[in-house]
Write a structure and sequence with these properties.
99 residues; mainly alpha; 5 helices; 64% helix
Length: 99
């Protein structure tokens, strides 16, 4: 999907997903003119679309975005850390979860 991340959350999420899969350079654009040009280019070039699809399929094997188990494990760790901070009587704050 080609995306132009502006004020809409959906377009920013789409840009984030494209970048997470390694396709950001090809799929995230910075202007309406570039958006239209990229959409037409991909619409007319089946080989380029196929190459992008192949890269996306390959990314599914290694990209953390597609690692559901890891995502769930990390979310659980975040929630547990938030609970620990709460039970210590501390207010909201930033923290990192590392492997």
């Amino acid at each position: 999907m080609v995306t132009l991340p502006l004020e809409r959350m959906a377009s920013r999420v789409a840009a984030s997903l494209a970048c997470a899969t390694g396709l950001g350079r090809e799929m995230v654009v910075s202007s309406q003119a570039e958006y239209e040009a990229r959409a037409v280019e991909l619409g007319l070039d089946a080989a380029k679309r196929g190459a992008l699809r192949a890269r996306l399929e390959a990314a599914r094997l290694t990209c953390p975005l597609f690692d559901t188990r890891r995502w769930v494990r990390d979310l659980e760790r975040v929630l547990l850390r938030m609970w620990e901070i709460h039970t210590e009587g501390k207010g909201p704050r930033t923290f990192e979860i590392t492997d």
